[in-house]
Design a protein that fits this description.
Strand 5 (117-126) and strand 6 (134-141) form a beta hairpin. The protein has helices at 2-28, 35-42, and strands spanning 49-62, 74-83, 86-99, 105-114, 117-126, 134-141, 149-156, 160-168. With 169 residues, the protein is an alpha+beta fold. The longest helix is centred in the first third of the chain and has 27 residues, at 2-28. The protein folds into two domains: 2-30; 49-168, Allene oxide cyclase-like (AOC barrel-like, Beta Barrel).
Length: 169
């Protein structure tokens, strides 16, 4: 019984040390937990609401054998981005069907390589149709969009999509 108590006490001390180390690491993280990260966010050079259109330039199915899609099947899309009527970069999307029975679900990674930086998003589509909107989460970026986060909506159109992103950080 003493060995069990000693082992439990040692495990509790190790666990407590791990919690303290995690808290110290979290408080030392440069963004967005520090004042420097908050100052960088306040000085952000981009508009917090970014709207643009994409025009599809390629579409390739992935994994389809025949008939209806199965879980694991998907597609890859490339497009041209236009903002305010002016070309502003490229977009890529890779979507995978995760459930094809009942509600049709697809998960996607959609990246926007704009003239002033890259915006990386992840999203999901809840519905079988090609016109089902994609709910997006902004997970990062480069260039002018370093540290970006937020959310958005991609609405498919006959030629590509209309995208609105609400950016933070």
């Amino acid at each position: 019984m003493r060995k069990l108590t000693a082992r439990l006490s040692a495990a509790a001390i190790i666990a407590a040390g791990a919690v303290v180390a995690l808290q110290a690491g979290a408080s030392a993280a440069p963004f967005p937990h520090s004042n420097a990260g908050l100052a960088a966010a306040a000085a952000s050079p981009y508009d917090p609401v970014l709207s643009f259109t994409t025009t599809m330039i390629s579409y390739a199915p992935v994994g389809f054998s025949s008939g209806a899609p199965a879980a694991g099947d998907g597609y890859v899309i490339a497009g041209k981005v236009t903002r305010h009527g002016v070309p502003d970069g490229l977009s890529t999307a890779q979507c995978t069907f995760t459930d094809t029975h009942g509600p049709v679900l697809r998960v996607c990674t959609v990246d926007y390589a704009l003239d002033n930086g890259l915006i990386v998003t992840e999203g999901y589509i809840n519905g079988p149709g090609q016109d089902a909107p994609v709910t997006l989460v902004v997970v990062g970026g480069t260039g002018a969009y370093v540290g970006a986060s937020g959310y958005g909506l991609l609405q498919p159109t006959a030629a590509g999509s209309d995208v609105t992103l609400h950016l933070a950080g």
